[in-house]
Design a protein that fits this description.
The protein is an alpha/beta fold. The chain is built from nine helices and eight strands. The chain has helices at residues 4-11, 50-53, 56-61, 63-79, 84-92, 109-113, 176-188, 207-213, 240-266; strands at 19-24, 98-103, 118-120, 123-130, 163-167, 191-195, 217-222, 234-237. The strands form two sheets. It has a six-stranded parallel beta sheet, sandwiched between helices. Strands 4-5 form a two-stranded antiparallel ribbon. β2, α6 (109-113) and β3 form a beta-alpha-beta unit. α1 crosses α9 (240-266), α5 (84-92) runs parallel beside α9 (240-266) and α7 (176-188) packs parallel to α8. It is elongated and about 70 Å long. Bound molecules: ligand BV8. Residues 25-28, 30-31, 36-38, 54, 104, 106, 122, 167-173, 196-198, 200-204, 222-224, 226, 239-241 line the site of ligand BV8.
Amino acid sequence: MIELNQLELAAQTFTPGARVAVLTGAGISKESGIPTFREAQTGLWAQFDPQQLATPDAFRRDPDLVWAWYRHRAAVCDKASPNAGHLALHRLEDLVRQVVVLTQNVDGLHVRAGSTDVVELHGSLARYKCSRNCQGSPTFIDIADVSHNDEHAPLCPHCGEPVRPDVVWFGEPLRSSVLRRATVVARTCNIMMIVGTSGLVHPAASLPALARDGGATIIEINPDRTPITPLAHTFLQGPSGEVLPQLIDVIAARREAAEGSRESSDR
Ligand code: BV8
């Protein structure tokens, strides 16, 4: 349980006019039952290193293996639901001027939780595209329109190349429009919360330093310290499914108290 005074200290910066950026990683989805990226995969996938599978070379070498891994992960995400941490970020939207979620996750849970401004830095498991982008980048493919199963990567109906998930693999650049938006948001926010990320994957991991250089207050939420922790003004140590609702409760209570005292002074 986080000390109340730590939460009060963090809550003070969330004024009604605050522009808040939230950089999230796999940790925020842990309490939805989705294994974090670095945890050993479950079952059949325990023998594989995710970092070796999430690459263009792995897909070129064995498209069916990589396809099956993503279909397995998509099935896990479909069964998962947003947890109290995702829902707290949606609730924050009513308490400040702007909340932009910059997520490294591909599970779609922020949008399902109701967050209205989500930047999917690394793409989404819910979208697929031609691996050659034969009709222009990206060439999205609705897999409901092509016969497919979870074992074999279907072939693009235009060019016959294998279809792949619309995610950013290691060694691939982030979509320029996405990286541009994320950079602007990081540079201009008043507060950046960093939730559930090991802070190891770039360029996402460089966004907190951009925010700090822009004068933002940095708040990290994680059960463990990370390479980002030294940048944080406040480190709230704990699982985000517990800490985020506690923090948003304190912000909401302060807001009610302030409005209450304004009303009584207006009388
Ligand atoms: C690129 C999609 C250039 C796919 C992913 C600079 C320095 C060093 C390296 C590089 C660099 N620039 C580029 C690189 C190379 C590389 C990289 O960063 N490598 C690292 C590993 C050293 N980066 C890239 O390749 C990027 N591309 O830079 O391209 C370029 C330019 C032009 C032309 C060509 C190329 C692309 C990176 C994107 C890779 N794709 N995902 C998929 O999902 O399958 S990354 C993937 O891993 C995830 O999306 C996520 O981003 C990352 C995992 O990180 P986390 O989310 O942090 O998860 P993790 O498991 O590590 O940690 C979980 C955390 O949660 C922990 O801290 C834990 O304590 C915490 N936690 C646990 N429980 C809870 C919790 N927190 C809260 N509550 C809880 N209950």
